[in-house]
Write a structure and sequence with these properties.
binds magnesium ion; single chain; mainly alpha
């Protein structure tokens, strides 16, 4: 009976009003947003940032992350990380951190889900190849391209181009860009430091890929467990794991250490960031904006251990000959496709051929950057292999 009464009295919460109940003073509130480029009616029960998150998940660019390289080309095996699963891990970790710090979890999630939308096929090798192809035309950088996707290239909504995301999500994407003088980010540069919600995603991105790249490198046989004995972070974590789980089966060792590594980094990040916010007397978004540097990050000990792990990844994984082979092959495919489409724009699908009349190079670059690894490989075969289907 009591339960029935409870349900009868349940009133759907007004999330907008309740943000003040649970958000910390330094969190971004929906009601303070600068809004969207194209004005829209508010939704009946989703906040601005919840809608941003949903629009990102429903976008074509988001679904294509499934077949885009993180470190290993997507066909390597069926369970290593792709851009999509990396993005989901970053979103989960970011939400945990945001919730614990009293930040706006919806905004954090939207920023996390959008953070890699602009990646071309074949990972950083693909990005460098497109940047070289576009050298005289403004270059290519994945954060800026992500901005272009959500502002212009997605075409799902009749009333506006792109996804019409909130200013805060666009700002987070723009400020991650490596080209500080790019004209498209000028409008986002005046507000000061990124919001804490954005700083959290940056930190979660870095701790997620460091850890899962080790896991994937072991899984793909690029490294063996013995080599990790030289990495302090791995060594100390695995000793703790062995102490806590003396009966562990051998196949459980690797996933348990990987989980413990993430847990250690997240706990340390929370502890250090909370201490930093207290020490620096951060009581508002304005305090965050006007502070001299980022406020979210690991403590000095974990930062040191993390640097050792990154050093190992650079030497043993990112420069492994099998990774280099995939990278060089991917870059070659993109370069040859770029040259071929620029030489003969009539080869482009109709929609792109039409757009290429206004700006040939950027249109070809948009087409290539939107491709997944396997689509780019298939397109290469269709154009260059005499007997391939076209
Ligand atoms: Mg990332």
């Amino acid at each position: 009976m009591a339960k029935k009464k409870e349900i009868a009295n349940f009133a759907a919460p007004n999330w907008l009003e309740r943000e003040d109940d649970w958000l910390a003073p330094y969190a971004m509130r929906t009601k303070h947003s600068r809004g969207r480029r194209h004005a829209e009616e508010p939704h009946a029960y989703r906040t601005l940032y919840q809608r941003d998150r949903d629009r990102i998940v429903h976008s074509t660019a988001f679904r294509r992350l499934m077949y885009k390289t993180q470190v290993l080309v997507t066909q390597t095996n069926d369970h290593h990380r792709t851009r999509l699963t990396h993005t989901l891990e970053v979103a989960q970790i970011s939400r945990t951190i945001a919730r614990q710090l009293g930040l706006n979890e919806d905004l954090t999630e939207a920023i996390a889900l959008a953070h890699d939308l602009g990646h071309p096929p074949f990972g950083h090798a693909g990005e460098t190849a497109l940047d070289q192809c576009m050298h005289d035309q403004g270059g290519f950088e994945h954060n800026l391209h992500g901005l272009r996707i959500v502002d212009l290239l997605e075409y799902r909504y009749a009333d506006f181009p792109g996804l019409n995301l909130s200013w805060e999500v666009l700002e987070a994407m723009a400020l991650r860009g490596k080209k500080a003088d790019a004209p498209e980010i000028r409008e986002f540069q005046g507000a000061g430091q990124p919001l804490l919600e954005s700083q959290v995603v940056d930190a979660a991105d870095s701790l997620a890929y460091n850890t899962h790249d080790i896991d994937d490198a072991l899984g793909a046989g690029l490294i063996v467990l013995d080599e990790l004995q030289e990495v302090d972070f791995w060594l100390r974590t695995s000793e703790q794991v062995r102490r806590h789980h003396p009966q562990m089966k051998p196949e459980q060792f690797q996933p348990t250490v990987v989980r413990a590594l993430i847990n250690w980094q997240v706990s340390d990040l929370l502890e250090h960031t909370q201490a930093c916010l207290r020490r620096e007397q951060i009581h508002s978004v304005e305090n965050v904006r006007s502070f001299s540097r980022s406020l979210v990050g690991p403590g000095p000990e974990v930062q040191d251990l993390k640097s050792g792990l990154e050093e190992f990844l650079h030497q043993k994984v990112y420069h492994h000959y099998r990774v280099i082979r995939m990278a060089v092959k991917g870059a070659r495919i993109l370069r040859l496709l770029f040259e071929e489409f620029c030489r003969t724009p009539e080869l482009l699908p109709t929609r792109y051929a039409r757009k290429s009349k206004e700006n040939l190079h950027r249109t070809v670059c948009d087409y290539l950057a939107g491709m997944t690894d396997r689509y780019a490989q298939d397109e290469y075969l269709r154009l260059f292999q005499p007997y391939a289907n076209i």
